[in-house]
Amino acid sequence: MKIDLFYELAVPEHQGRSEAQVYHETLDELSLADQLGFHGAWLVEHHFMREYSHSSAPEIFLAAASQRTSKLRLGHAVVVLPYNHIVRIAERVAALDILSNGRLELGVGRGFSPKEYQLFGSQMADSRQHMKEGLQILREAGGPAFSHTDKLYQFENLDILPKPIQRPHPPLWTAAVSPATFQWAAQEGIGVLSGPFKPWFMIKQDLRAYKKSWQQQHGQGPLQAGQNNGFAMTIGCLCLEDAAEARRLAEGFTWYYQRLLDQTRPVLAQLRESYEYYHRLGFLEPLLRRGLNLRILESMGMVVVGDPETCRKKLSRYSRAGVDRLILAVGAGMVPSAVTRRSMQLLAEEVIPFLNQPEIR
Fold first, then answer.
1. No. of helices (H) and no. of strands (E), the chain
2. Which of 40, 95, 243, 266 is buried most deeply by CB count within 10 Å?
3. CA–CA distance, 75 with 232 (Å, rounded to integer)
4. Residues near 63 by beta carbon (within 8 Å), at least 6 away in sequence
5. Residue 72 contacts residue 5 (beta carbons within 8 Å)
6. Contact between 69 and 36 (Cβ < 8 Å)
7. For position 358, what pLDDT does the model report?
8. Measured CA distances, 320 to 60, 201, 313, 316 (Å)
9. pLDDT for 218
């Protein structure tokens, strides 16, 4: 199981950090992650989510990160296809792949915010079509000039430049929430990015469905098929020598996850054809009404907090279940950068080597 990092570039007022401080400290953390041997790091694309996420230009941040690291895989999680012209996406993807010397991983998604859809001039009803055409074009953009004619995009003999280093393209992933998306991703032969606001008991079902669909379509698991993708899961994590200190600091996770769930409230409240599955997530509304705490988040398998021994025990269950990649929101932006760096060091030295033992799987 590969271990990556996850960033929203959160700027909560109660932490007292500025946007500039968060940006530069995160770059420092990625440089450290590169030295410590973490596999990769992922950055989101969000808009107009004050405090929760100030990551509205992830391609620029990743370009900077590409110059501060040499081995760390750099994940874009995710480019929201309905908000961006697909040719511009393909151009930026190739440029990032060149700047990183072939270390880019590309996640794509449909988005979920009605406000964002309205501002960027797209229709949520077209979101699946954006995914269909977008993947087709991204898969061909690294080759010679080609033509495309469909509902959203039409062009002839277009040679998209530059070309990515990874051929035919960087590894492709999709954000996945509904069961149908997991099955579709497996059929398309791309990885899935699951979480971070679904409980483990639901993700386990998604994991089984994805693996089953992949085997039916491709005959073997994603990693055994030579793909640098598979099933990835995002969770919050804080690992410190003193378990009591870790739990005290991790109480701040409740702010992060409450904001995350609040972002989905409009989707839960409105009937949206493309997101009908949200309305069957009946467990969310009771949580939103009574509020979250660390114990609830732990019981739902959404966070792992404690000393190295506790983290080894709790994180290993995801590997045993077949998760190919675990994406850790270390500190989730809710602790000082110095604490995040301490946690990263412990994870790299005392937890990840244990998770990489063959008998764990």
1. 14, 11
2. 40
3. 12
4. 95, 96, 99
5. no
6. no
7. 73
8. 36, 14, 11, 6
9. 87
What are the tokens at 3?
Answer: 């271990």
**Neighbour count for residue 97 (Cβ, 10 Å):** 25
User: For every residue of 111-149, which 3-state class applies, written as one string?
Assistant: CCCHHHHHHHCCCHHHHHHHHHHHHHHHHHCCCCCEEEE
Please state the φ and ψ torsions of residue 326, each to the nearest 5 degrees.
Answer: -105, 125
- Report how many domains make up the chain: 1
pLDDT of residue 56: 95
Q: Is the peptide bond before 196 cis (omega within 30 degrees of 0)?
A: yes
Can you tell me the distance from the alpha carbon of 195 to that of 111, in angstroms, rounded to the nearest whole number? 14
pLDDT at position 179 is: 84
Divide the 361 residues of the chain into consecutive groups of 10 and give the mean pLDDT of each group: 96 96 98 98 94 96 98 96 96 98 96 81 88 97 98 98 97 90 93 88 91 88 59 97 97 91 60 45 55 88 97 96 96 97 98 84 60
- Closest by CA position to 2, among listed 313, 356, 252, 279: 356
| Residue 213 domain boundaries | 2-360
Q: For residue 193, what is the domain's CATH number?
A: 3.20.20.30
Instruction: Judge whether 318 and 299 are in contact, CB under 8 Å.
Output: no
- Round to whole Å and give the CA distance between 136 and 173: 14
Residues comprising the chain, all counted: 361
Distance CA 99, CA 28 (A): 18
pLDDT at 226: 43
3-state helix, strand, coil in the chain (%, to 5): 50, 15, 30
**Adjacent-strand bridge partners of 326:** 3, 233
